[in-house]
Each structure stands twice: as C-alpha cells, then as structure tokens.
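Late entry, written up from scratch paper. The run itself happened at the end of the previous shift, but nothing got recorded in the book at the time, so transcribing now.
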Amino acid sequence: QAARTYLEKFLDHLADCDMEELIKHGLRALRDTLPNEVDLTNKNVSVAVVGKGMPFTIYDDGKVEPFLAGIEGEERRGQRPAGEQAGAAEAAEGEQPPADQQQEGMDTD
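Output as recorded:
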C-alpha cells in the first residue's frame, strides 16, 4: 500500500521523467514498504527495464548500485524515525486518564 500511495502522489510527475529518475521513484516506493531497520541493497534488489524501442535489461548486483546510490541518504516517506516512535510510546504509557475515567483499585482487606 505504501508503494502505491507513493507512486500515486508522483503520478503527474512520472510522465516527464527519464529512465534513471523513473527507476529512482520505483526504488523509493519499494524502500518505503520496508521496515526501518531494513535497507535496499544490491543483494535484495534487482531492476528490470523494458520499453518501446529498447531491449529488456536487468540490473542486479553491482549494476544496480548506481541507482541505489541515487536515493541513498534520502529520508523515507510516511514513516517516523525509530526514536520518534519509541518516544511516542513512552509518552502514551506515562499519560493518566482524566480523573472521571480513573478506576480505583479494589480493597482486598
């Protein structure tokens, strides 16, 4: 779903992109579907290109590196940084419900 959302957001821009920029958009969309601790590498990504008047070409291993380098260091979209997620969870744990919604403990005496 995250990849589809990304591509829909840039749909109007994609028609004007060259092949390299289209590949970068595809890699960004794919990357944004991964957990924060997983990165795209030349070991888990291959890119296939096909189009009118051009041969079917597969970029994998070292051949995909230039495309990955083109998106390296960019912030992931639609995800909060890991520290921010942990901070939000800690803040939620420390919050107390409003006084009228607090439940009292049961007496066991």
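The mean pLDDT is 77.
(Scratch paper discarded after transcription.)
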